[in-house]
Amino acid sequence: MPNAEALRRAIAPPLKGATAAQARFRDGRGSWQGASGEADIRTHRAMKGDERFRVGSVTKTFTAAVVLQLVHEGKLDLEGSVQRYLPGLLPAGWPEVKVKHLLDYTSGLPGGDTRGMPDGPDWDKGRYTTWDHRALVQSGLGKGSLFTPGSKQNYSNTDYNVLGLLIEKATGHRYEQELRHRVIEPLGLEDTYSVGDEQGIRGRHVHGYQAVKQADGSSRLVDVTEWDQSETWASGDLISTTADLERFMTALFSGRVVPQPQLEMMFTVPPVPAYDEENPASTKPATYTSGMQRSRLDDHTYLYGKTGSRYGYVDGFAATRNLSRSLVYAVNSTDAKGKATNPVVAAITQAALAPAKK
Known about the structure:
Shape: globular
CATH class: Alpha Beta
Number of helices: 9
Number of domains: 1
Radius of gyration: 20 Å
Helix content: 10-25%
């Protein structure tokens, strides 16, 4: 298949800014999968492609799926408010925030105060800090609402952590339990789980590393595999593999996870502008759906998917609505929280999603 050789080159050593990479690609002509690098640089264990990793914000797609199942069952109402379901979470007088606003990031809720995880020399301070989910949401509310709910879109972990609280309120069960019962077990995702209060990764996994600058200007790789994930919780704490993510993506797009009409929300971008703190008058359109993000493959076709990152880990999935082309990747970036796109990630997405040469 035309993309296979380009994908092999994309993950061929040496990997710039990464210690390992893996990818899975499918289109109408066939499928390809590959892996390279080291899953553990201390032991030089080679990357095989079946290792578990932190998926980061790809968790949001799973969370959205559970919420929309609950909406379908009548246990949550899209028009229902946070104030109704979770009284006391938001201050008195706060603008009404509806479930639908949380799903598509139009709530206007500000981000939580995570000062325990700063940039700079103390970048890993708070690495083992455990956050209370309600307290984390409330920690940022002193900033006030960013905008009238429903009027703009602002990508936010807070929205999805509130959805985690809503899942628990509507079901009487822990978020992790509902995710396992409703999505993970029915799809047979044997390598996927929500970490809860665990700081490590169970089973066979790839280690994550962060390049840390030293006083002499050099840098060294620090193993950041162990990290408390309570700060991200329902917005980013899942562990998975590329095989499990591919299975989940295929089932989701095929209507086997979220029923209609709720599924359509996961492929619909609200007709509002993206929030721009520096330019409030910006009319740049929103790009996020409920749980995913929409981008263009070409002039006639959209891609839908989600990316994620935690220290040491960058990953993502993307597919056309009819699954005629799909990609799942995971790269162990050594600057996963940096602003620039990792060059290996860029090479993988270019190889898989650029128009094939005839």
